[in-house]
Amino acid sequence: MSNTETIEALHKKTYDEVSQCIQCGYCLPACPTYASMETESASPRGRINLVKMAAEGKIDILEDLKEPIDLCLGCRACEVACPVNVPYGSILEHAKETIHDMEVRGKGNNRFKDFALNQLFMKPKSMKRSSDLYYFYQKSGLQKVARSVNLPEIAVKDIGAFEKALPRVPSKKYQIERGKRYPAKTEKAVRTVALFLGCINDAVFYHVNYYTLELLRLSGCDVYVPKEQNCCGALHAHQGQTEQTKKLAKENLLAFEEYEVDTIITNAGGCGAILQEYDHLFTEAKEWKAKAKAFSGKIKDISEVLCSLESLPFQERLDAVVTYQPSCHLNNVQKAGAYPEKLIRQIPGIKYMELPSKHSCCASGGVYNIQQYEESMKILGSKMTEVNVIEPDIVVTSNPGCLIQMSHGINTYGEGQPESIHLVELLARACGIKVE
């Protein structure tokens, strides 16, 4: 495809959408990058205008559009603030797809990034091997040695510090087996659901999946774990790799199709958001669009399902001050942001302290904190200032990227060193569920 054809394709995909923006500025206070950078090109309104100009051929896509788009977190808080419902998420993904296609043609794409996305995350066996290596790294004592000499930070500069934010992995016996049905632990099952494992959670945060499974079973759910499920494709979509996202979507649609369930459970806001929007990927393939629409209608976050069941068997009193950093995609895309706080408030002994800027992104943004480390740290530093004022014992999140980011924030900017955990781990503790 020539540059002219690329511009025409961008025009076709986005022009009607970008033309909906009335440039009112309601999105500006909601945008974390505008707040930190204070430039129009770092705002949703500014980026939409740049996409429009690129679609009209007035600016160069790589020279003028790429950097402002790359600096967007994709949190989609602007969509909630927008009075005319501009589909910013769709505009952003089309812009990223166009930029990616032009980089590939110009051979300017990042080989390491492409390897990670297409040779690692797209292949469950590769993720399993990575999980085994990480388990060995921790259990063998290599991690302790590496940390004692700051090897990760020396080897990979700033982003090496994220290694200290990774969780302690439990025994591999807590890694969920695929292709199985796990029966409810109540006298009678009240609901039959399927569990989406994800790739990062399945490899590194598999204790989060285990807690999710056990909470569902204690609440009366029979749980299926489809064997052939794969990465959700969110990271690929965020990098403009639309064809790879579609491939993963098709694999997941087929993997879950054979199970007669009305709910598919997720425990990561980023995964849940892309899964809920699978039907947007198939604009022309009617058969796949129909499958995707049926699939997307079943996606529910674990917090929403547990709230609807109202049957968590709390056994332990947790005397702790807790604050919560929401997942942007759980809030802004899945529209399920109220459920985690509702569950936290139900736990015996908890003193819940609300973050003043809870609706503002923590700046994890998929791999944004790796690709745009300095800008990410500006936003995270402001977030941690609020956390330090609250002085919590525990910081709760509902997405693995947010969990790593907030753990890194505690390590870098924290006072008092609170613990950072996923919502389901907090609930599991209150229900007496433990891992070794």
TrEMBL record:
Cite the entry's keywords alphabetically.
4Fe-4S, Electron transport, Iron, Iron-sulfur, Metal-binding, Repeat, Transport
Q: Which organism is it from?
A: Rossellomorea oryzaecorticis
The EC designation for this entry is 1.1.99.14
Q: Which residues form the 4Fe-4S ferredoxin-type domain?
A: 11-41, 62-94
Checking InterPro entries in the record gives: 4Fe4S_Fe-S-bd, 4Fe4S_Fe_S_CS, Cys_rich_dom, Glc_ox_4Fe-4S, Helical_ferredxn
Q: What does this protein do?
A: Component of a complex that catalyzes the oxidation of glycolate to glyoxylate.
- Names of the cofactor(s): [4Fe-4S] cluster
Official protein name in the record: Glycolate oxidase iron-sulfur subunit
